[in-house]
């Protein structure tokens, strides 16, 4: 079986004919396999959804219990049509997974979704999945992106709070995954004061706690008079709303891999950029491909051409998929 007969891009997303399913489709389809709960990968309205238990529960929190007509937790290898499907940790956010596909007479394909090899205290670590074809993201697929140690970035936040004890530090962090990771990093660094959350991050953080991830004293960010700690975490979109005006002289922070680009920090009015990413950077990306050595690499979500060129220079066959409809939700 040719690879394109097994899995190929369509307007709705990657489609697998032998299993008659889509992976991370961008519009409603009869059957979807979902890598993780971010909205550019996990959408509502599908007829049936297979994902990890955590991703299914996160989708229910975000979209309501009726987000799909039928749901199936991924539990060990299962057959979907003529395809053996298994889910493996991606290290991106809670519940994130790489999806391995195997079919008689065809190549073994791993669709990585979004993944990260830097240890993340709020999710299972990435694991290598041997395959013939590796479908990789390239969100930070340029040599300029070399992310620093998240613990060192956390120390920058703690140092700023010590320098400006009277100013609240408003940390822009995506409500699913990044917010909880920033909280966990602060707790690991010894910060045990209350951390206040914008409403969009509160229920998802409570879910992480229910899953056994210790996040310490979390409180709603309602009015400044009720703020007992210096840290307030909110999605970046909140900083463009009247919500931010309730805080007097805040230090505006933003936790994202994109904060390595100084122009983006300036455009957002960020005083304290924190380069904390849940994606592989360039060294991790190329290390992964060097270690897996698949027969072919399919590249999507980002700087596709640069990574394809690197593959060619390193004797790896590669092609860009040019899928549409995917964006980094941190933006």
From TrEMBL:
InterPro entries: MBL (IPR050698), RibonucZ/Hydroxyglut_hydro (IPR036866), Xnuc_lig_assoc (IPR026360)
Keywords assigned by UniProt, alphabetized: Exonuclease, Hydrolase, Ligase, Nuclease
Coiled-coil residue windows: none
Domain of life per record: Bacteria
Enzyme Commission code(s) on record: 3.1.-.-
GO MF annotation: an example: ligase activity
SUPFAM superfamilies in the cross-refs: Metallo-hydrolase/oxidoreductase
Keyword Hydrolase carried by entry: yes
Protein name (record): Ligase-associated DNA damage response exonuclease
